[in-house]
Amino acid sequence: MDREEIKKILPHRDNMLLLDEVAKEDDVAIGHYTVRGDEFFLKGHFPGNPIVPGVILCEILAQSACVLMEDAMSEGKLPVYTGLNNVKFRSPVKPGDTIETECRIKRAKHPFYFAEGMVTVEGKVCVSADFSFAIMGE
User: Fold this and answer.
1) R_g over Cα of the chain
2) Distance between CA atoms of 71 and 10, rounded to whole angstroms?
3) Burial of residue 1, with CB atoms counted within 10 A of its CB: 0-12 exposed, 13-18 middle, 19 or more buried
4) Containing H/E element for 3?
5) Selection from 5, 137, 131 nearest residue 67 by Cα
6) Residue 74 gets which letter from DSSP?
């Protein structure tokens, strides 16, 4: 799905929608985002040597995983991070890189969903993490 289709699932807009495309393949979400270099989070991180902040990479993972919870997120419902565990930052992500995410839901007990995922660039692991969400009502 492209950005317009993603907007039908995620509440994120403008600077915080951090996926160019995402697909569901069985129980796995595969997302992509190309770092352009003009993103707000690169302006001060770091001048002259921009690197995508780890928290932004974790947000991209979360947005990718949310498409797997599409059925639970009816109108007015929001996916909210409830935890990040076992996060490992292995390689920096820079402007020009195309990020690929791979996420899966490990278990769910509505409204809680527990996921795992990783960010890669050209097959090299940049981030891996376990994370969880709650689907919040109106």
Assistant:
1) 14
2) 12
3) middle
4) helix 3-7
5) 5
6) -
The single residue of 12, 32, 45, 110 carrying the catalytic annotation is 45
As a whole number of angstroms, the distance between CA 138 and CA 126 comes to 35
Q: Active site includes 45?
A: yes
Pairing of strands 112-121, 21-25: unpaired
> For the segment 57-107, what is each residue's pLDDT rounded down to a tens digit?
999 999 999 999 988 877 778 889 999 999 999 999 999 999 999 999 999
Q: Which residue has the tokens 């990479």?
A: 57
Residue 68 phi, psi dihedral angles, 5° rounding: -75, -15
Rounded-to-integer distance, Cα 52 and Cα 126, Å: 11
Distance (Å, whole) CA 125 – CA 112: 27
pLDDT digits (tens, 9 = 90+) for 8-64: 888 889 899 999 999 999 999 999 999 999 999 999 999 999 999 999 999 999 999
